[in-house]
Amino acid sequence: xxxxxxxxxxxxxxxxxxxxxxxxxxxxxxxxxxxxxxxxxxxxxxxxxxxxxxxxxxxxxxxxxxxxxxxxxxxxxxxxxxxxxxxxxxxxxxxxxxxxxxxxxxxxxxxxxxxxxxxxxxxxxxxxxxxxxxxxxxxxxxxxxxxxxxxxxxxxxxxxxxxxxxxxxxxxxxxxxxxxxxxxxxxxxxxxxxxxxxxxxxxxxxxxxxxxxxxxxxxxxxxxxxxxxxxxxxxxxxxxxxxxxxxxxxxxxxxxxxxxxxxxxxxxxxxxxxxxxxxxxxxxxxxxxxxxxxxxxxxxxxxxxxxxxxxxxxxxxxxxxxxxxxxxxxxxxxxxxxxxxxxxxxxxxxxxxxxxxxxxxxxxxxxxxxxxxxxxxxxxxxxxxxxxxxxxxxxxxxxxxxxxxxxxxxxxxxxxxxxxxxxxxxxxxxxxxxxxxxxxxxxxxxxxxxxxxxxxxxxxxxxxxxxxxxxxxxxxxxxxxxxxxxxxxxxxxxxxxxxxxxxxxxxxxxxxxxxxxxxxxxxxxxxxxxxxxxxxxxxxxxxxxxxxxxxxxxxxxxxxxxxxxxxxxxxxxxxxxxxxxxxxxxxxxxxxxxxxxxxxxxxxxxxxxxxxxxxxxxxxxxxxxxxxxxxxxxxxxxxxxxxxxxxxxxxxxxxxxxxxxxxxxxxxxxxxxxxxxxxxxxxxxxxxxxxxxxxxxxxxxxxxxxxxxxxxxxxxxxxxxxxxxxxxxxxxxxxxxxxxxxxxxxxxxxxxxx
Length: 754
Description:
- It contains 10 helices and 42 strands.
- About 15% of the residues lie in helices and about 35% in strands.
- A 6-stranded antiparallel sheet has the order 1-2-3-4-6-5.
């Protein structure tokens, strides 16, 4: 097991006195490298992104937080060993912890036993005690910021998230942090103190004990709404653990326990070896996690950087496949999920790292360099060495190549392709449409209040206002407004509009899933409704209130509207008459509240629904009766959209959640029986993009496009699109993606035998 990723072209050879030897990850503040100190010590060096380094206010806060971080000392923190806040690219170095993140551990091995959760909470509480003693509030404690070592957990990135405040990242008033772990007071803009970190600690214990968030998954706004207004789901925790986690998750920060109290209360745990409250030998961890962590401890530190040279292939790792077995696709860790929209949650800005040269070239992935083979994928063996692929003698080695057609001047987020145009949200806060043939801007919609793209269909682009709830219909051809309707058109009596969960355009109708607020003090705290608006005028056709909850998955096929809802007694998948809103049938997916439907696909007389608890359900589309249910033998959370069906095989991806970067999986299941065919692990959450020449295409947050045989999972191939999440859209053999340079790119995909 390797705790780092290979270096890529353009990575620095040295930062300050530290020699760079590998990649550890990346995030909103910067990129983290594995390095050797002058004395040979393994060190984690974090380099701040260029756009932050250019902000004087950020540098001021960064200097202040580096000074505070120097004061943090404790056995459960990764101590700061060096920093240069005045460098051209500011950086800091901490002791390297060769451990698995909590998020990766839970994703791979599932929920933890009570003793391990108590040990985790004990170590984290002691870490917070040290951090708070230094006058620092973490404010972004989450699974990816907790590393697991044999002698206890380590909290990383303490104080660094605070350094981002009052800079361009928060200039719009958005909240920085991870939904589900941010305390209610932070979400509503109030002052955050040490009690906010206690809230995050409680959420982490629930996550470790159950494998899921205390406030469910789904859209970031939905999670945050539940954090502020609803009680956490503690049903999967034993009594005493549920009590301490519940007190940590109190809405009122004054009602949460103080950190010293938690240190004393949680310190009374017992390891697998019988030692009480003593970390050592990884006995505090669940055995499968302990095995992974101990393997990482023996991972050798690589020599020096030297493989990242111009003209070299980017590092790739090919999977080894067997039927119903698993394989790992390599690549550097992905950045945080881009599930949030501009104006709602911070979109991570990216440094310009691509350089264009001439026309019809293969894109480079670092500024100023052209790598002629950067988009030419390979199917190397594990680690990219000489081991070769173990896909078996029947597997045919494939070459996946993307050749650029054009770069656009626009940078479109979550692009949608329709009617010869690519439509998306630009960094300027406006909607843009780009011609698919030339890359030229076809139109720009100049209303900044309707910058959130909700759906495209029937020649109509539907956008919403983040603040007012207004829905606007825009002509796909001209970019001119067709109609504008206020949220009051579909708001139920006695409620006020809160947010749109999902909007779908089909068959002359705009279907809307929305959340509404009830008067203060009401129980429950909100109400939901699914509504239908006329696509030509925006007028309301019908609305159907839902008391407890709606998922954001929504699909319309052949006059039926399919979606998910939950009530007190369980979670459901439903079909409504698309013309009237009348219920055709309702199918129970879980006996638990909040297990929402996250992905839907209709094929023939069968509708497939994936849920947030890992279940994939095949349901008769006419009667709503169960055909089969498949639950994969992996602990990677919810099913992700889209699902694909081809030649009797249903394909889908699973991932941990929307707020924490984590590994995922791609699954192939027999559509008729639910029998698993193959599973492939991915280093970041996968997004299925389509089918090409019998292979399924999927991208990951690590910036890579992959292809594997849709029926066997064999013949792997991959190619780099971007240094980060490519935000790709594939139509046929064309891919439209963010190349990491602030521009939308179009490329033609070819998949050939090597």
